[in-house]
Amino acid sequence: HIPQGPVCTNLGLKPGQRLTVKGKIAPNAKSFVMNLGKDATLLGLHFNPRFDAHGDVNTIVCNSKKVEEWGAEHRETVFPFQKGGAAEITFGVNQNDVTVHLPGHQFTFPNRLNLSVFDYFDTQGDFTLQSLSWE
């Protein structure tokens, strides 16, 4: 069972805006998830840092989900997270992709679902959300 964190459903994030997420990672963390999309069934970005889960170690796995259909997994090997540590992640929404800003690293993930607005955000797993801000 994956613990479910807070869920936001009317963010209204549009291209040119950013969402910054701050929180704490559990001391015995295996993985955590942040989902950004239109709603729970249309996820433009499934962001999943894995300390040790599903055969991945210290890898960030990103994907998109359309109803029950997952896309192709995208893997990032830069892993700036530590068990028991603080995490700050900024998601920048662009016309055609989302830029993920991590400490000392950034990458983009394509907006495969062509979402014009990101209304939905949730966190799951070994992560405690402390603050959300957007601009």
TrEMBL record:
The entry's keywords: Lectin
UniProt cross-references to InterPro entries, sorted A to Z: ConA-like_dom_sf, Galectin-like, Galectin_CRD
Keyword Kinase annotated: no
UniProt key word Cell inner membrane: no
MF terms in GO: lactose binding; laminin binding
Residue intervals of the Galectin domain: 5-135
Domain of life (superkingdom): Eukaryota
SMART domains assigned: Gal-bind_lectin (SM00908), GLECT (SM00276)
GO CC list: extracellular space
CDD domains tied to this protein: GLECT
Protein name in UniProt: Galectin
Species the sequence originates in: Pardalotus punctatus
